[in-house]
Amino acid sequence: MKTLAGVLVGLALAVSSGGALAATECNGPLSGTIVGGVVVNDGDFCVLGGANVSGGVQVNPGGILIICASTINGGIDANGAGNVLMGAEEIGCPGSVINGGIQISNTGPGAIQAPPGERSPPSIGLERSIIHGAVRLTGNVGPIAFASNGVAGGLFCADNAFDLDDEGMANIVTGKVTCTFGD
Q: Whole-model pTM?
């Protein structure tokens, strides 16, 4: 009887947990509904275009992420990325909606380079988007564009090599702002 009770309890826990879903590795274009989150690994170049992601996005060192016209439920966490661009006007990318916070740290000088005579995108571009959470930008070494966003949370910056550039397009941030905007 004890064994049967243990099996039933184990079965009930397995059924009620719903099982954890593995994140989808992104290396190339990805759209549509994605459940379980997205991960961008070293050397991957991920373009989320028209995607609806549940579970957030994780960018590992060396990964490149571009988000256009997408909804991310669960936020964005990037540490050591090559580039993180969202709604970047420089590349003709519409803004997105982020339901969660954004944390970007230790991003390099920018892996994406424009052809000679054209302007390269910043290493981090968060533009023309709605962010339902706080934004934390720390220890980044490349230029950061932060323009025309609505942020329902604070904006925190520390130890970045460059001040933020709003490209002449103001942001609306509810919450404390510790970042400095340059010319």
A: 0.87
How many alpha carbons lie under 13 Å from residue 59 in its C-beta half-sphere?
Answer: 31
Taking the C-alpha atoms of residue 119 and residue 136, their distance in angstroms, rounded to an integer, is 26
> Hey, where are the domains in the chain?
21-174
- Beta strand 57-59 with 150-152 is unpaired
Q: Which residues, in sequence order, are CB contacts of 158 under 8 Å at separation 6+?
A: 137, 138, 139, 178
Give the C-alpha separation, 54 to 168, whole Å.
Answer: 33
* DSSP summary character for residue 177: B
Q: In 3D, which of 106, 105, 95 has the Cα closest to residue 151?
A: 95
Short-list 137, 134, 135, CA closest to 105: 137
Beta bridge pairs of residue 33: 52
pLDDT in tens, the chain (183 residues): 444 333 333 333 333 334 456 899 999 999 999 999 999 999 999 999 999 999 999 999 999 999 999 999 999 999 999 999 999 887 889 999 999 999 999 999 998 888 888 878 899 999 999 999 999 999 999 999 999 999 999 999 999 999 999 999 999 999 999 999 986
**Pairing state of beta strands 97-99 and 102-105?**
unpaired
| Token pair for 98 | 């982020």
